[in-house]
């Protein structure tokens, strides 16, 4: 007869502990059915599910484990597992897996309670919880903090749409971001990331800045806002706004370009994407003049944006076809993926406006970044709390992965 036993070991972490315990088990001819280990603040939690082939030897093996644990100043607990329970556990391994990612400036117990309660409500079982963000100093100002907790969950939600609505509600209530995505092969095998520019990579809508310089700022800003909310057709609104810039001097472009500020986390994100072998692109309804400046600064591979036609040192106000609108952004994403030999599941798309929704919808990971409510509700994922580098967490990236 055989015995199946779950061995739990807790105590101060120390080198050689795993080798010592498994060494004792090896002498008893034990088979390992499952194993897991975590260390939190130098405190070890170590679990081993074992099969002891010979019942007569079981008490001797477990006694040796207990003695070894005592010598290492560890607490040891044994829990017998029936064969029926073990077989039921084995049968559950084919269930779908998902990742729930909590992004916040400071992690609180309430945030974890609300997220875990929702996962349980929809029939999802939490298998692992990991902190992806770095260690947070106690005196770190809240607005500078960066926290990420990743839940690995098993099962299929009873109502995925309702689950998402609840996550969005809690995210808004607690000022956090909650991402829910399938834990598939493609999650860690993405290789192309495309970005909107205005209000995504930079903290401004360039056409609005040009309009201010042309003395039509309020008029253009109102049209821009309605277009980003999805109330106006982008191409038509773009032509309308551009026409109001007719006669603007070319001299103001360099000053506006120099004043544009990168969005929080942009440099970190692009540095890491390059290190991980990603190709990157700007797909923007803005202007190539400014997009190429960003390309040089961030090391971006491709730029597709609108041409700002200038004749005799003046902006003509005439749109140059083809306009990079919502449909063209989606088409360009497909084109770049095919060019790089990638499936769409291996792509990431990031944007803030309604004209970004088609490309966000077809990308493997579509992220609405600091977006309007309509866009946030429609996109697969949304980040509003952290900077652009928060996208790395959705890929399973840990802050320590970036350390040299």
UniProtKB/TrEMBL annotation:
It comes from Pseudomonas marincola. InterPro entries: ACT-like_dom_sf, ACT_dom, HAD-like_SerB, HAD-like_sf, HAD_sf, PSP, PSP_ACT. It catalyses: O-phospho-D-serine + H2O = D-serine + phosphate; O-phospho-L-serine + H2O = L-serine + phosphate. GO terms for cellular component: cytoplasm. The gene is serB. Belongs to the HAD-like hydrolase superfamily. SerB family. This is Phosphoserine phosphatase. Keywords: Amino-acid biosynthesis, Hydrolase, Magnesium, Metal-binding, Serine biosynthesis. Its EC number is 3.1.3.3. Its cofactor is Mg(2+). Coiled coil: none annotated. NCBIfam families: HAD-SF-IB, serB. GO terms for molecular function: L-phosphoserine phosphatase activity; magnesium ion binding. The active site is at residues 196, 198. Pathway: Amino-acid biosynthesis; L-serine biosynthesis; L-serine from 3-phospho-D-glycerate: step 3/3. One of its GO terms (biological process) is L-serine biosynthetic process. It holds the Pfam family HAD. Signal peptide: none annotated.
């Amino acid at each position: 007869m055989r015995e199946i036993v779950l061995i739990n070991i807790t105590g101060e972490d120390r080198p050689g502990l795993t080798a010592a315990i498994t060494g004792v088990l090896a002498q008893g001819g034990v088979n390992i059915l499952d194993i897991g280990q975590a260390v939190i603040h130098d405190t070890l939690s170590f679990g081993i599910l074992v099969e002891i082939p010979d019942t007569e030897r079981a008490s001797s093996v477990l006694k040796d484990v207990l003695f070894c644990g005592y010598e290492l100043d560890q607490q040891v607990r044994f829990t017998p597992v029936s064969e029926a329970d073990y077989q039921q556990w084995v049968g559950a391994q084919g269930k779908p897996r998902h990742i729930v990612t909590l992004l916040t400036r400071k992690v609180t117990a309430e945030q974890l309670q609300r997220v875990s309660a929702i996962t349980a409500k929809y029939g999802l079982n939490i298998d692992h919880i990991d902190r992806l963000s770095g260690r947070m100093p106690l005196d770190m100002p809240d607005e500078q903090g960066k926290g990420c907790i990743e839940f690995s969950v098993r099962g299929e939600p009873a109502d995925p749409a309702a689950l998402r609505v609840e996550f969005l509600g809690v995210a808004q209530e607690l000022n956090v971001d909650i991402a829910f995505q399938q834990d598939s092969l493609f999650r860690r095998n993405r290789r192309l990331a495309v970005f909107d520019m205005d209000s995504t990579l930079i903290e401004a809508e360039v056409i609005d800045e040009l309009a201010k310089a042309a003395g039509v700022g309020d008029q253009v800003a109102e049209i821009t806002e309605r277009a980003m909310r999805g109330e106006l057709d982008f191409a038509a609104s773009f032509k309308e706004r551009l026409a109001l810039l007719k006669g603007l001097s070319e001299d103001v472009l360099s000053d506006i370009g120099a004043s544009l500020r990168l969005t929080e986390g942009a440099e970190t994100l692009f540095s890491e994407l390059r290190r991980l072998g990603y190709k990157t692109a700007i797909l923007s309804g803005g202007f190539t003049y400014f997009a190429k400046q960003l390309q040089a600064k961030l090391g971006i591979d491709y730029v597709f944006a609108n041409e700002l036609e200038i004749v005799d040192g003046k902006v003509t106000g005439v749109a140059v076809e083809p306009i990079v609108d919502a449909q063209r952004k989606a088409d360009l994403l497909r084109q770049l993926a095919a060019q790089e030999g990638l499936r769409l599941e291996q792509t990431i798309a990031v944007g803030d406006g309604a004209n970004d929704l088609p490309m966000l919808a077809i990308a493997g990971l579509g992220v609405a970044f600091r977006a309007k409510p309509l866009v946030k509700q429609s996109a697969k994922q949304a980040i509003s709390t952290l900077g652009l580098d928060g996208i790395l967490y959705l890929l399973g990236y840990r802050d320590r992965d970036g350390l040299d």
